[in-house]
Every structure is written in structure tokens, then in C-alpha cells.
Design goal:
This protein is α+β, with helices and mostly antiparallel strands. The protein has one domain: 2-Layer Sandwich (HIT family, subunit A). The chain has 8 helices and 14 strands. It has helices spanning about 105-125, 160-180, 180-195, 230-235, 235-255, 285, 305, 315-325; strands at about 1-5, 10-15, 40-45, 55-60, 75, 80-85, 85-95, 130-140, 150-155, 195-200, 205, 220, 260-265, 290-295. Helix 1 (about 105-125) crosses helix 5 (about 235-255). It is globular, with a radius of gyration of 20 Å. The site of one zinc ion (ZN) has 5 residues, from helix 3.
Length: about 325
């Protein structure tokens, strides 16, 4: 596999003919369970709670898209750019128990997983080759779920993914004009108008964005400005616990509508690596604001996925919020 850059949109794509073999979804023995006999390459473990050997851990992805060794060896080919698929590809195991997805877990179980995610981002940012660390979860067959066990995936890449790059540029442009964070301004308007807010929990808010890409799209953000997820996840324990609760409750709400979803964390890129040509690192701590985006998948509405040039969402965020607020969730 190699990375190629689209010279028009400036997005990197990973392409090639040596597609790694994907482990079958239902293996006889789950490799991620605490008592699994199969060998996984453990990168980091969080200490256990309630008598478990560990509470969350990071392991190397069994069929990684990116490989950790070597230099990206970025090179030109006429007007084109390419580089080797150097990076990290890990699986973050959310819980030692096979049947404990976030929406079944207690906040005491979720908090160490969030801290581990923050720890992995912080560690990987020490590697100057990596410009961005992504964390995402695909849940359900229609989302392309890879493992039955409660997990998210992490990739560290030598480039910033397209959507994050758009957001970084937009955040920088807004800041240049107003000297304010666009996300902070959105949060204060949403809280004031209270038309699309799903729930406020201490320092965090969940709301449906004004212009959703899919029905019931929901974002979770810190209410006070913070660019880097890892600083929140490794900060005050009470606050991490509030984030755990809001994430759990939001997923419980969404699951009253549909089971399958994509979840992605958007956070600040690696500022150890400073690019003069891109410029957005200068004010990044002030102009970017980390958030979690949840994109539910409604099979009956899958026109929104086939019609990707212009997003189409046949449920307004105001109607979505009315249903999500009413959903029964655990305290
Ligand atoms: Zn398992
Ligand atoms: Zn902000
Ligand atoms: Zn985002």
C-alpha cells in the first residue's frame, strides 16, 4: 500500500493492490478478551478496576494498514506526490469484557479507556514523523465493524486527514477575522438558542449540528475551549467521568433510533511538527477545539450515503434533538 495525494483537493488516499487480509468478524475465540489464548502485541495497558487484569489496552492492529518502521520517503512524480504508508495502526480495547460496549458500561469502566486514548495520542505525538492521530469506531455491519469485541481503532499518520484539514483551515480563517474560536462561538449560540442541544453534562455538551450530514448526527465537545483531546482526557478525573457519562448516554440515545454508527474524534494535530507552508499551527491552540462526531447509519435513509457530493439529511437537527432528548437512558 502507498499514499497518494490528489493534486486538486490535496487529500491523501491510501491505495495499492496488496490489501491486508481482514480477520473474520466471528472468530471462534476472541483475540481481545482478557482471557484469550491468542497473542496480541500489547502497546499499553491501563490498570484494572473491579478485579479485572486491566481496564483498557492498546494493541497493534492484527492486519495494519500503516507500518511503524521507516521514513515516509515523500517524493514527487511530475505534479503528483506519493509516500510510503508509514504510521501506527492500533486497536484500543475499551473493556476486558466481550459484552461491555460503552452503552452497557459504567462510567468507572469508560473513564480509564478515555484516559488510555489520551495517553496514546500524547505518546504518538512525540514521534515527529506523525502529523495526526485519528481515533474512530465503526459499529455494526453496515458501518464496516471489524471486531466483535468492544474496540476503537487508532491510526497515526504522516499527513492530516482531509476533513480535519478543512476544519483546521476554517478554524484558522475564522480566528483571523474575529480572534475567537468558531467552535466556542457555535457552542455559546447553541446553548443560548437551546434548539439543538441534546444534553449538557458539567463541562461537556452534546448537540446536533445546524447542518447535519446524516440524520441524528451528534457532536460532543468540551464547553470550555480546549484544542487537544489528550489534555482533557488526562486532566481532572471528575471531568473525565462526566465525559464518560455524556458519551455513554448519547450513544444510548442514538441506539434508540439505530444500532449502527460511525464515531470519530477530531483533535489538534501534532504541533511538534511545524509546517511553514500550511500555517495553521501558529494559532492552533486558540482556533481549534476538539470534538467527537457520531454519524448514525439509518439503512432506510441510505440515500444520504450514496449521494455524497451534497449531504442529504431528511431529518432536521431540531426534529432529531426532540427524539434524542426524550430517549430513555440510564442515569
Ligand atoms: Zn472479546
Ligand atoms: Zn473553542
Ligand atoms: Zn470535526
Amino acid at each position: 500500500m502507498e499514499l497518494r495525494k490528489d493534486p486538486i483537493t490535496r487529500s491523501w488516499v491510501i491505495t495499492g493492490d496488496d490489501v491486508p487480509e481482514v480477520a473474520p468478524r466471528s472468530e471462534p475465540l476472541c483475540r481481545f478478551c482478557a482471557d484469550s489464548p491468542s497473542n496480541v502485541q500489547v502497546v499499553s495497558s491501563a490498570p484494572g478496576v473491579d478485579g479485572n487484569p486491566w481496564s483498557a489496552r492498546a494493541v497493534v492492529h492484527p492486519s495494519p494498514l500503516y507500518h511503524i518502521e521507516g521514513e515516509p520517503a515523500r517524493r514527487g512524480d511530475g505534479l503528483y506526490d506519493r509516500m510510503r504508508a508509514v504510521g501506527a495502526h492500533e486497536v484500543l480495547v475499551e473493556n476486558p469484557r466481550h459484552d461491555r460496549q460503552i452503552w452497557h458500561s459504567s462510567d468507572r469502566e469508560i473513564a480509564p479507556f478515555l484516559a488510555l486514548a489520551g495517553q496514546r495520542i500524547q505518546d504518538l505525538k512525540r514521534d515527529q514523523r506523525f502529523k495526526y492521530i485519528s481515533i474512530f469506531k465503526n459499529y455494526g455491519a453496515s458501518a464496516g465493524q471489524e471486531f466483535e469485541h468492544p474496540t476503537v481503532e487508532l491510526t497515526a499518520t504522516t499527513f492530516v486527514p482531509r476533513r480535519v484539514l478543512y476544519e483546521l483551515r476554517a478554524g484558522r480563517d475564522y480566528f483571523e477575522q474575529k480572534e475567537r474560536c468558531v467552535f466556542c462561538d457555535i457552542i455559546s449560540q447553541e446553548e443560548r438558542q437551546n434548539q439543538r442541544v441534546v444534553e449538557i453534562r458539567a463541562d461537556f455538551v452534546a448537540f446536533c449540528p445546524y447542518a447535519p450530514r446524516v440524520p441524528y448526527e451528534t457532536w460532543i465537545l468540551p464547553r470550555m475551549h480546549e484544542a487537544a483531546f489528550e489534555r482533557s482526557a488526562l486532566g481532572r478525573q471528575a471531568s473525565v467521568s462526566d465525559l464518560a457519562a455524556l458519551l455513554r448516554r448519547t450513544l444510548q440515545r442514538i441506539r434508540t433510533i439505530t444500532e449502527d454508527f460511525h464515531l470519530v474524534l477530531h483533535t489538534s494535530p501534532n504541533s511538534l511538527y511545524r509546517s511553514d507552508s500550511l500555517g495553521y499551527w501558529k494559532t492552533i491552540d486558540d482556533d481549534y477545539h476538539w470534538h467527537i462526531e457520531i454519524m448514525p447509519i439509518l439503512l432506510s435513509k441510505n440515500k444520504s450515503y450514496t449521494f455524497k457530493e451534497v449531504y442529504y439529511s431528511p431529518v432536521s437537527s431540531e426534529a432529531a434533538v426532540a427524539r434524542l432528548r426524550e430517549a430513555k437512558v440510564n442515569a
